[in-house]
Structures are given as structure tokens and as C-alpha cells.
Design brief:
With about 200 residues, the protein is mainly alpha-helical. The chain has nine helices and no strands.
């Protein structure tokens, strides 16, 4: 019980550091945010920061992992029914998280990712990637999607489509309804993938 409480406190501290960092990135930009400033704002020592993260780059990668944590919670009660519809749901759930939790920070997060050697946002080990891959595999097995792509290629393709609209939204200074456009794009792509069955 005591260890579980310590683990929960550690996770809470890590998430707090990340959220303070995201706020500083929004104000100053990734390259202008120092570890010292971050620690002062978060009310922790530099040693405490390095207890949780090996570097500023690792912390930014963990910023993307916040969605994976949210997805874990979702999957505890979400019931899968139709692999194609479930793929759409998960991709749009991620888009909604971006829009609601880090809308004005997304651009800075992607800029930061371009500056790091380890890019967590595109790693196949992510819960997000693995969930979409599992659903894509089921859709292929059931013949619901017809394509020459492997399950890995299909998963990467679908996630790229979704990431693309998010980045475009950033480049256009958040000037349009992200959820509406993301859903429209996904429906178009999924309709094409499933329509091939009738050709």
C-alpha cells in the first residue's frame, strides 16, 4: 500500500512537471526554457527533476505520453465492436485530447520533437500506436479493409493522416474546427479503404 502511494505521488509529480513545462514552452518557447526556470516554477529542486527525467528532451517526449495515459484510462471501460469504427474513434479521441488539453502548445511540442534525437510521438511502442495497430489487424483479418499494406504500414498510414491534419491546424494558427476536419478526413480515407471491397 505504501509503495503504491509513493508510485502515485511520483506519477503526480512527473505530470505536474510536464504541465508546468508545457506552460513555460507556450510562454517562452522550447529553446528558451531552462531546467532551472522549470524547477522554480514547479517548486522542485534540480535534483528532483533529474530523479524523474534524464533530460529536457526526455521530459518533452513524456509530454506526448500524457495522451497514452489518458488512453489507458479510456480502454479500461471502452467496449470494442467494429474495428473500422473503433479505429476512427481512437484517432478522433487523440485529436480531441490534443485540442482540449494542449491546443496552443501543440505547435511548440512538435517543434521540440524536431529538436530531439528520441521522438516518442512516432514510436511504435506507444499505447496509442499499439491500439490502432491491434484494431487495424482485426479489420484486415475480418476483410473489412482491403489493401496491399501490411498491418504496420496501414497503422502508420492512418496515424500519419491524423497527425497531418493536426500539424496543418497548427500551421494555420488553429483557424478552423480541428475535430470537424479530422473526422471528415478520416471518413474519406476509411470509406476508400472499405469501398475497395466492392470493386
Amino acid at each position: 500500500m505504501a509503495r503504491k502511494k509513493r508510485d502515485e505521488q511520483a506519477a503526480q509529480t512527473k505530470n505536474n512537471i510536464i504541465r508546468v513545462a508545457l506552460n513555460l514552452i507556450q510562454k517562452k518557447g522550447y529553446h528558451n526554457m531552462s531546467i532551472r526556470q522549470l524547477c522554480q516554477e514547479a517548486g522542485i529542486s534540480t535534483g528532483a527533476f533529474y530523479h524523474h527525467f534524464s533530460s529536457k528532451e526526455e521530459m518533452i517526449n513524456k509530454g506526448f505520453a500524457l495522451y497514452d495515459d489518458a488512453l489507458d484510462l479510456l480502454l479500461q471501460h471502452y467496449e470494442f465492436h467494429n474495428p473500422v469504427e473503433d479505429i476512427k474513434f481512437i484517432l478522433l479521441h487523440q485529436t480531441k485530447f490534443v485540442m482540449e488539453e494542449s491546443a496552443n502548445l501543440t505547435k511548440e511540442l512538435y517543434i521540440a520533437q524536431l529538436s530531439t534525437d528520441v521522438k516518442y510521438s512516432v514510436k511504435p511502442v506507444r499505447k496509442y500506436y499499439q491500439t490502432v495497430e491491434e484494431l487495424a489487424g482485426k479489420a484486415l483479418e475480418k476483410g473489412m479493409i482491403h489493401t496491399d499494406m501490411t498491418v504496420h504500414e496501414l497503422t502508420s498510414f492512418l496515424i500519419r493522416i491524423n497527425r497531418g491534419v493536426i500539424i496543418d491546424w497548427c500551421l494555420n494558427d488553429y483557424s478552423y474546427d480541428l475535430m470537424k476536419q479530422a473526422e471528415k478526413d478520416l471518413i474519406f480515407v476509411l470509406d476508400k479503404l472499405t469501398a475497395l471491397l466492392s470493386n
